[in-house]
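My convention is simple: the sequence line spells out the residues, with the fold written below as integer tokens. I include a record here:
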Amino acid sequence: RGSLKPLVAQGGRRQAASTPALSSAGASGSPPSVGSAKGSRPGLSTLNRSHLQRLAIAQSRVLIASGVPTVPVKNLTGSSPVNPALAGITGILMSAAGLPVCLTRPPKLVLHPPPVSKSEIQSIPGISHSCRKTTKKQAKKGKTPEEVLKKYLQKVRHPPDEDCTICMERLSAPSGYKGPQPAVKPDLVGKLVKCSHVFHLHCLVAMYNNGNKDGSLQCPTCKTIYGVKTGTQPPGKMEYHIIPHALPGHADCKTIRIIYNIPPGVQGPEHPNPGKSFTARGFPRHCYLPDSEKGRKVLKLLLVAWDRRLIFAIGTSSTTGESDTVIWNEIHHKTEFGSNLTGHGYPDINYLDNVLAELAAQGITEESLAQDKD
């Protein structure tokens, strides 16, 4: 029960030794004596548990400050000795290889912010309302697929010597599409006016008929969008407001919180299995953006994507394998508030730029804001 100060100082000087520093809850074993060199100093076997814990903590702090690599260990504060024992073995093996090691507790997953009262929630300047429900925009009735596509195409009298990327037959030969036959001759060829990619008209009409039939067309080669692309997102509600907490990496501003809520229901004619029920797991889903100039820009574009039914879809979950369920639709969101352990949180310096690119791939840019106002 001698003074701990000499031992702590000694631990700091011997930080490169092979003995791993154990955390407070991992000191239940019998660590090797560090006081045997001098008889005047007590060995660890003479210290009680609290002194050992304090010594271990001091040694850990010295090692961490010196840049020694740390090994995260779960359940260090629990009653089970299994994980601390494995941590000790890991430390012994690393020290046997000449690597100093310090055992630390792993970072915690922080999905939600601290509790926020209603009085602390603020509306977002420049954005009307704080809630929006799904709207379903239909293509104008009376237009045939041929009439819709006509404004996006130019006829090609002399097709180039290449394949149609839809049916994979030569453009100089008739279309190889074998499904329901459109009312277009299979040997006609057209060029899209923006991107100049060439296809059989027969194939383009068939592709349009297999989609949403919403009056838009997306080039299958370069993904250029013609018209206004809409999706098949089922009915739901989107809420958005400001909360008085900062995201990691955005300490200079508050946070925009988005809450999506979609209930289970029955699939419509635009969905994979019309008439069959679909599930909606994990709702309401909370997502976060920094309340910065770029963060508000992303929110405005997400509202356009919501109105166009492009944020969610019905399909097969890539995480659970469940079919006929609501899934994300190629526009990534951040669902972790105070961590980034799963890759869906902050800090992430590239996220806002990445999501702007994903929105642009769906045909949603700043020009879309003016289009929606019109």
Notes: DSSP finds eight helices and 15 strands in the chain. The first helix runs from residue 5 to 13. The CA atoms of residues 197 and 323 lie 34 Å apart. Residues 4-9, 11-39, 74-82 have pLDDT under 50 and may be disordered.
